[in-house]
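Chapter review: from sequence to fold.
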Amino acid sequence: MRGKEVDELLDRASLAPHELNPALLERIAGSVKTSMRPVRPLPPRWVLSGGLILTCATVALAGAARAGFYGVEKLSVLQRALIFPTLGILVLAAAAVFASEMIPGSRRVVAPWALLTIGCLALLGVFAVLFSDYRTNHFVSAGVACLIAGLLHAVPTGLVSWWLLKRGFAMNSVAAGLVAGTLAGLAGVTMLELHCANFEALHVLLWHTAVVPLSGALGALVAWTLHFRESSGTHGNH
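The token string follows.
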């Protein structure tokens, strides 16, 4: 059989009608209809980012109001002018990246791990310039207290932020968890800067800044754990 004859045979086979059982088609159509639900579109990214920023500000201010605004009262005008705008820019960036991570197809401005690194370096730089008291009175006890306070305020921030974006879908759940934790950690640091009046340089450099990477790592770990459990459950059902 020549090549031309083979082509003609295949063409005739492709044109031949393939009859399907009407009952089978109805069952397929019925199963598709029952599984379809109307889905509300996600709000614009700027709305989601605004909600995340508002959450961070609310948690930080509420925590400082409860514990006292001793830190911001003691800060100089220059210190306030550098610390809080830096935190504001980082919170804005983290909110935008988190919203992008939860909206498939969104353009990623910066990777979550890069945002975490940049944020920590920015805080270290600002603190190193502004604080020059290198005494270490009650270094561990006071430091651990601030670290725990910062993380305790990061947890509700992370939970509320995740709830705000729960209708989104993270293509990379670990990356989304990392940036969610980073955002929450920044809320914790903001609360500490408003409240903590301990201006020893090493205290601020280590214990305040440490809230951000620890919170980011915690967010990534929680996201990985949830994803692992979902994957295990799906494979187990099969």
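Two observations follow directly from the output. The chain has a mean pLDDT of 86. The longest helix spans residues 211-237.
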